[in-house]
Amino acid sequence: MSQIFVAQYRRRADARSTLEAVVGRLGERVGPHAGFVVLPENAFAAPDAGPLPAALRDEALTRLAELARRRGAYVLTGSWAEENAAGTGLDQVARLLDPAGEIRAVVRRSVDDRGATATGDDFPVVDTEHGRVGVLLGQDFWLVEPPRIQCLAGAELLLVAGSTSAATTDSQHAAVWGIATLNTVGVALAAGLDAPSAGGSGIAVPDGFLAWAGTRESVPGAAWDPDHIRHLRQPDLRFQETLWFGLWARRPELYGSLTGGQRSAGATIGTEG
C-alpha cells in the first residue's frame, strides 16, 4: 500500500526561498513508500508576481524530479504562471512527474488581464502503479463536470493543485468530501496559506477524510488503497454492503434530458394566470 502527501505552506520572501523551504520539508516528510506528492496552486510565487523566471522554473522541475526519483513517487508540481506559447499572455501550468522524473501530464489554463485563471475542457487521466489518477487545477475541481469526466474515464484518485477562500473554507472542506462521495473517488487537494488561499488541504475518500491540514503549515499524509475505491464501485443493487454504488452508477439514457434542457415532471416553475 502506498501513501499520499499534500503540501500546505506559506510562501517565503521570494520564490527561490520558497522552493528551498518546500523541497527541504518534503525531503524530510515524504517517506520511501510514497505514491503521490501534491503541491498547491501558485506553488512558489504570488499570483500577481508575473511569470516564474525560466531558470527558476527549470530548477523547480529539476528539484521535484529528483524528489520523484528518490522516493519513487508521482509528484504534482503545483502550478505557476508561465508565458504562453504565443508570448501574448500568461498560462497557469501544472505538471505530473512520474517516478523516473519524466513529465506524464500537463494542465495549462490561460490567465486573463485581471489575473483570474480560466477553466478548461481537457482533463488528463494517467495510469500509474497505484491506480488511475486525474490531474486538476482548482478552477476545474470546484465544478461538477471535470471530476465526473475524469472518473468516467476511470480515475480512482484526483490530484488537485488548488486554493481555497477564507470566506468559504468550511464549505469547501465539506465540498471536498462531497466530491469524493458523489464520484466514489479519492481526492488529494493541496492548497496554500497565502491570500487569497486559506489552507484546508486534505485527503478524502467516500468514507471521510483520511488527513486534513486545517490552517497550519504541514505535509499531511495518508495510506492510499485503490482497491477500496474499486470495491465501493462494484454493483451492489440491493445496497447490502455499500451505499456508494448508487451514487457512482449512471443512467446514460437520461443524459439527453440534461443536455437538451428539458424539464422533468414536477419541475415546472411558476403558474400561468
UniProtKB/TrEMBL annotation:
Residue span(s) of domain CN hydrolase: 2-237
Domain of life: Bacteria
Gene3D superfamilies from the UniProt entry: Carbon-nitrogen hydrolase
Coiled coil: none
Entry GO MF terms: hydrolase activity, acting on carbon-nitrogen (but not peptide) bonds, in linear amides
Alphabetical list of InterPro entries matching this protein: Aliph_Amidase/BUP, C-N_Hydrolase, C-N_Hydrolase_sf
Keyword field: Hydrolase
Xref: PANTHER family: CN HYDROLASE DOMAIN-CONTAINING PROTEIN (PTHR43674:SF13), NITRILASE C965.09-RELATED (PTHR43674)
Annotated protein name in UniProt: Hydrolase
